[in-house]
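Reviewers of the previous submission asked for a worked example of the structure-prediction workflow described in the proposal, so we include one complete record here. The input consisted solely of the amino acid sequence. No template or homolog information was supplied to the procedure at any stage.
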Amino acid sequence: MFNSISSQATELINLTKQKFNKSKTKVIAITSGKGGVGKSTITANMAYIYSKYGKNIAVFDADIGLANMQILFDMKPKYTLYDYIEKKVSLNDILIKTKYDNITLIPSKSGHNFIHNNSSLIYKQVIQEIVGLNKYDLLLIDTGAGLNEYVQEFLDIADEIIAVTTTDPSALTDVYALLKMVSNTKQRLILAFNQTANYKIGQTITNSLIDLASKNRLNSNFMVEYVGNIVSDVNIQTTNRLRKLFAKEFVGSEATICLNKIVNSLECL
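From that input alone, the workflow returned the following C-alpha cells.
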C-alpha cells in the first residue's frame, strides 16, 4: 500500500516537472538587495517595453507585505495573491489584465501578515502553476528588498536573475552579497545600473565586482553579465506619482532609450 502511494506521488511530481519544463514561459526575477534603487519602477516599465515588442507578459508582485505594483499600474484589484493562497478564489481570478495590452498583473497586498505563518515554498508553487498555464512569454517577478528566504525562493525558481543597483556603496555591497549567494546555484547574474550617468560607469563597477569575486574564489563558472544603465530623469518620479509608466509617457527620453537598450541586450543573451 505504502509503495503504491509513494509511486503515485513520484509520478505526480514528474508530471508537474514535465509540464513546467515544457512551458514557453521564461521566468525572470528582478531583485536588488537594497531597497530604494528603483527596482519596481524598472520592472513595470520593462514589462511595457516587452509588451510593445509583442510579448505576452505577466508581472508577479513578490514584494511580500510591501506590494506597490498595483500603484505603478494604477489598479485597485479586487483579489490578490493571498486570496488564491487562502483558497478564496481561483488562479484566473488573480491574473488581472492591466490597462496596457499584453500585460497581466498578479497583485500582492501591502501590510499582509501571511509572511509570518507560512512557508515560502507556497510562493514557489504559485509560480509553477502560472508557468504551467503556458500562456505567457515572460513572467517578471518583482522581488522584495533584502536576501531573506522568500527572496531566495523566487531567485531559485527563476530562469534568469536581473539585479538592479546604483553606484551607492551600500547598494553595491548588497549586490556583491547577492552575487555570492546565487553563484553556487545559478550560471550567471545579470546586472543593470539605475540612476547612473553613463554606460561606462556601470561597466567599470561590474568589472570590479568580477575581479573581487575572482579574488575570493567564487564559482569560476559563474558569470556576471552587465546589460546597461538608466540615467537619472525627473520624468520618472513624475510619472510614478501620476501612476503612469515613463516608458509610455516619455518615449523619446534618455531613460526610456536606456531601458530599451537593456531589454534588447537581454534578448541577445
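The first helix runs from residue 2 to 22. We consider this example representative of the routine output the project will generate in years two and three.
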